[in-house]
Design the sequence.
């Protein structure tokens, strides 16, 4: 009797230590994944505030300067889907670390660039590394946290990184450019990338993947990668060629033809690159479309609100970053704390609807900013609902988008989610900036002052952005009602007690 009695507490303590160790390991892995993702997301906006310094330092033309951004966006948007599927086939840990290494090395090359050619080439490689890293991150998060309550918290952390990283990039880019030089917006990635890659090798669980023989659709890979890269290229070039030009229509038609050929290929391929069963869930399909519309609308804030602060209110780079920072704070407060609890209690649809409503209202409020506006009176009251709304909507969409993903398909589902975000952002930037520019030119032609004309252009873009998110809200209202997350079984709640009893 005595050995049995004395052994039970020891066994219970062992289980307790094992369970605690597993918990710590999972959250450590999430921290590494989010560090890598944050580095990639920051790069999407940290460059924007440094563009004037880059142009002056290494001699970019006005048209060539846009390709400091576009050279990154084209491979990033084009390779997300393929990278996500590769994660399923050869192992997501391997793909994630490879992406970090490529991104970090390319960042170093960007930082030491002394001419436009070298910088653009390095940015292209950086876009490849960013796509490979980002494509598998959400899939790994979902796999790490299978229980609904923990998954909601983990997706909240991931969504915060996705949502707030852009605002943080504006602040970091302005500070680094003003205090040191534009080179450091790239150099800062190097130590972060090295540490993240080393830690990823230690804390991420190794996995073999399902094997290349389960999905080596080379023709499909070529079709979808070509379609996405050509599509993103077409969208970003509309600023120079216009939407109805021969260049835009011909390249757009070619991208669409490649995409249709890819879909046809997937219906017949023995080992499809993108199993179409991923889209059988209405929640998943709708979440992808809603996300593209939401991100497209939000770009009227992420890009044009920055221009309003700088060109109309005359903020410098650092003050612009500080002006946008309340959005990051609001997103963090919602996505890290409140949204996961609400999603676990009421379901993602119930949380998504008020989130999209707040974003719509925030953009509508920005559409009324005057030329002689005040940040505290006119801008800040609009930014707070945007931050709160995005903090609610992003975790909800990520939960819906991954709701039907199996462990074998989580990489491709993650890649699709990020691809729709990139397509939405590229489309939103191209459409809204074009409309703002053309309306500003018309106002200047009619005799308006520069500040009034610029403000009028931004107001139009904010109205269009609000309309896009309103459409997303209408689509979200048609989603089936999602039940609250099921409570954890008793066996999951008290593993220590049960094991100790045994």
Sequence:
């Amino acid at each position: 009797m005595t050995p049995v009695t004395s052994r039970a507490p020891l066994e219970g303590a062992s289980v307790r230590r094992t369970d605690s160790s597993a918990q710590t390991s999972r959250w450590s892995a999430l921290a590494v994944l989010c560090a890598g993702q944050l580095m990639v997301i920051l790069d999407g906006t940290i460059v924007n505030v440094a563009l004037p310094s880059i142009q002056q330092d290494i001699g970019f033309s006005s048209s060539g300067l846009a390709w400091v951004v576009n050279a990154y966006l084209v491979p990033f948007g084009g390779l997300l889907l393929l990278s996500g599927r590769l994660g399923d086939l050869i192992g997501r840990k391997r793909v994630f670390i490879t992406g970090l290494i490529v991104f970090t090395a390319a960042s170093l090359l960007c930082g030491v660039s002394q001419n436009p050619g070298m910088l653009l080439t390095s940015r292209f490689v950086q876009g490849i590394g960013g796509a490979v890293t980002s494509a598998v991150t959400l899939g790994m998060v979902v796999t790490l946290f299978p229980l609904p309550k923990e998954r909601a918290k983990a997706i909240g952390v991931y969504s915060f990184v996705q949502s707030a990283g852009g605002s943080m990039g504006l602040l970091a880019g302005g500070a680094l450019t003003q205090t040191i030089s534009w080179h450091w917006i790239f150099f800062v990635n190097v130590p972060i990338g090295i540490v993240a890659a080393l830690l990823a090798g230690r804390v991420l669980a190794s996995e073999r993947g399902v094997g290349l023989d389960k999905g080596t659709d080379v023709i499909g890979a070529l079709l979808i990668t070509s379609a996405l890269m050509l599509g993103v290229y077409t969208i970003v070039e509309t600023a120079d060629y216009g939407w109805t030009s021969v260049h835009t229509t011909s390249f757009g038609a070619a991208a669409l033809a490649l995409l249709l050929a890819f879909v046809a290929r997937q219906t017949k391929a023995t080992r499809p690159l993108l199993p179409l069963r991923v889209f059988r869930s209405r929640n998943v399909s709708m979440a992808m479309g809603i996300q593209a519309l939401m991100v497209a609308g939000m770009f009227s804030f992420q890009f044009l609100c920055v221009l309003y602060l700088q060109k109309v209110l005359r903020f410098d780079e650092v003050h612009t970053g500080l002006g946008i920072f309340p959005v990051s704070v609001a997103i963090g407060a919602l996505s890290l704390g409140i949204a996961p609890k609400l999603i676990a209690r009421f379901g993602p649809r119930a949380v998504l609807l008020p989130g999209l409503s707040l974003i719509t209202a925030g953009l509508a409020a920005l559409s009324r900013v005057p030329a002689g506006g005040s940040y505290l009176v006119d801008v800040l009251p609009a930014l707070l609902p945007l931050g709160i709304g995005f903090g609610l909507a992003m975790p909800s969409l990520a939960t819906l988008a991954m709701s039907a993903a199996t462990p074998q398909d989580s990489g491709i589902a993650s890649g699709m989610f990020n691809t729709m975000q990139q397509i939405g952002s590229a489309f939103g930037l191209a459409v809204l900036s074009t409309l703002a520019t053309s309306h500003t030119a018309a106002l200047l032609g009619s005799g308006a002052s520069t500040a009034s004309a610029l403000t009028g252009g931004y107001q139009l873009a904010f109205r269009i952005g609000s309309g896009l998110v309103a459409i997303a809200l209408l689509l979200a209202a048609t989603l089936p009602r999602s039940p609250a997350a099921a409570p954890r079984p008793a066996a999951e709640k008290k593993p220590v007690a049960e094991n100790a009893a045994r």
Remarks:
- Residues 1-19, 483-502 have pLDDT under 50 and may be disordered.
